[in-house]
Design the sequence.
């Protein structure tokens, strides 16, 4: 089995494998021309460009993006993730708007874009801030080969539920 | 009899925005709404809105509602709540219910921002307790904090169906299925993505055949559709205790009819709507419309239409000179065009242009008739 993570999505917001290997980077999974642009203004490093038309797709400048994830909490579509393939395992972060929140250290079932279970993973971080307005950011650690497939967790696998 | 320069019927996003625009031009409006709370549907919207910065995109809908109410209070706009307007005469007299009985209001200009009603489907079992519209379920969870049921089947995958299904998950219900008669999901892919990540199954090219249950819903039987026709023998049963319908909305045009406004049918915007021009003015020169009554769209668009109607009415009342009004209206139209662009918005933009063209043709015909007479 190849160690190169397979990437099922394509688009101007998807970072390259080379960039993902260097550290956390946004992965913008927004593929329809809808009138929406808060991600553009949310980025302090101006790494996201929608352009003149508000229906343009967000383009990621992966050299500017440092994977801070602020855009994740502004996107009304919850369509932005961050991926970090620089360590031994991959870290994937996603927006999370359910209660109860998972906690760092929780062993959870990680799922793909259709909610299908893919692997066991560990919650390594849960970020919250008034500026996020109730959209938490959950980070899980998973096998690197699944970094572009894991996008959520099975909520029923959160310990104590 | 009460008199006012500008009467606005409906205190939702369109009506309040109209009142604010008028107030900023120096026109004191009277806003009347039959509900006990202002804000229309905004306070049910707990999700972050789409749009651009000028439309407060990325902000949750109810916070936009709070901001709108705050500005309304700051501008001293008079809002009468719990008063249903049920009569409107072509001469500008409105009649509303009040604790003291019927009350007559005479207004120089009227803006109707009455909104829309949710559509229903008729099927075997559709009168069972547990069958409701998506909006009803949304009111229960987000305003009253009551779960309508534990396991929900959502009929309709437009943005309303997708958003309410997601909010039902957030409220703690299970969503057993989202059902769509068309061969593809109707709403935004990113809204559907939230449900898909949560493992919610989608049934496209399916519809509800019947709801099963004796005293309340115990399940729903779906049937496959081929080109919107039911395919025999493809029934499929899904256990659930709640069936939500998100199958479109119909503009509430009754008051516009009473005011003698000409109507036109435009399916892309929800059915029959009052004809209106670029200023949101109907064929009754004293009556303007804004929001879902003029075609079903979203709250952000409703707010822009409200500002447009409020500005145009203020101009007609002499509170704005033509040049200032033209500048303000151009700015609003530019922002509104942003919301009606892209693969989803272009259809609404075209439908809106059709309404304006029909209105112009009607006015031209009326003028010709007048000249002949």
Sequence:
């Amino acid at each position: 089995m190849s160690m190169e993570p397979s990437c099922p999505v394509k688009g101007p917001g998807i970072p390259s494998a080379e960039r993902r290997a260097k550290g956390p980077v946004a992965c913008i999974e927004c593929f329809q021309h809808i009138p929406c642009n808060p991600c553009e203004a949310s980025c302090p490093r101006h790494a996201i460009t929608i352009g003149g038309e508000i229906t343009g797709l967000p383009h990621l400048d992966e050299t500017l993006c440092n994977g801070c994830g602020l855009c994740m909490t502004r996107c009304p579509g919850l369509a932005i993730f961050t991926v970090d393939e620089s360590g031994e395992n991959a870290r994937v972060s996603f927006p999370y708007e359910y209660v109860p929140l998972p906690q760092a250290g929780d062993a959870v079932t990680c799922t793909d874009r259709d909610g299908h279970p893919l692997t066991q993973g560990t919650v390594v971080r849960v970020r919250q801030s008034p500026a996020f307005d109730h959209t938490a950011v959950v980070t899980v650690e998973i096998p690197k080969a699944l970094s572009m497939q894991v996008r959520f967790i099975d909520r029923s696998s959160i310990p104590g539920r | 009899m009460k008199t006012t320069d500008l009467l606005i019927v409906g205190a939702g996003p369109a009506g309040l925005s109209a009142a604010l625009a008028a107030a900023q031009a120096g026109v004191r409006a009277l806003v009347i709404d039959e509900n006990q709370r202002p804000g229309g549907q905004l306070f049910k919207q707990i999700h972050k809105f789409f749009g651009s910065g000028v439309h407060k995109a990325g902000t949750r809908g109810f916070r936009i509602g709070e901001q709108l109410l705050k500005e309304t209070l700051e501008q001293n706009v008079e809002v009468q709540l719990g008063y249903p307007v049920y009569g409107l005469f072509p001469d500008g007299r409105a009649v509303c219910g009040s604790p003291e009985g019927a009350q007559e209001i005479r207004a120089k200009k009227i803006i109707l921002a009455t909104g829309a009603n949710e559509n229903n489907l008729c099927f075997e079992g559709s009168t069972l307790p547990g069958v409701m519209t998506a909006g009803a379920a949304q009111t229960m969870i987000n305003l009253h904090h009551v779960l309508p049921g534990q396991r929900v089947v959502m009929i309709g995958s437009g943005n309303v169906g997708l958003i309410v299904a997601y909010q039902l998950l957030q409220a703690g219900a299970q969503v057993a299925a989202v059902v769509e008669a068309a061969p593809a999901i109707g709403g935004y892919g990113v809204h559907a993505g939230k449900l898909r990540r949560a493992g919610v199954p989608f049934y496209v090219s399916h519809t509800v055949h019947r709801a099963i249950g004796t005293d309340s819903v115990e399940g729903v039987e779906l049937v496959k559709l081929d080109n919107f026709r039911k395919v025999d023998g493809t029934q499929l049963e899904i256990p659930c205790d709640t069936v939500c319908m998100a199958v479109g909305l119909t503009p509430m045009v009754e008051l516009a009819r009473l005011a003698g406004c000409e109507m036109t049918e435009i399916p892309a915007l929800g059915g029959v709507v009052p004809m209106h021009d670029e200023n949101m003015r109907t064929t009754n020169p004293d009556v303007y419309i804004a929001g879902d009554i003029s075609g079903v769209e979203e709250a952000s668009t409703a707010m822009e239409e409200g500002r447009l109607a409020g500005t145009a009415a203020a101009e007609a009342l002499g509170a704005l000179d033509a040049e200032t009004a033209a500048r303000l209206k151009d700015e609003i139209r530019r922002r509104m065009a942003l919301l009606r662009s892209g693969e989803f918005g272009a259809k609404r933009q075209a439908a809106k242009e059709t309404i304006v063209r029909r209105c112009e043709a009607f006015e031209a015909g009326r003028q010709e008739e007048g000249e002949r007479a």
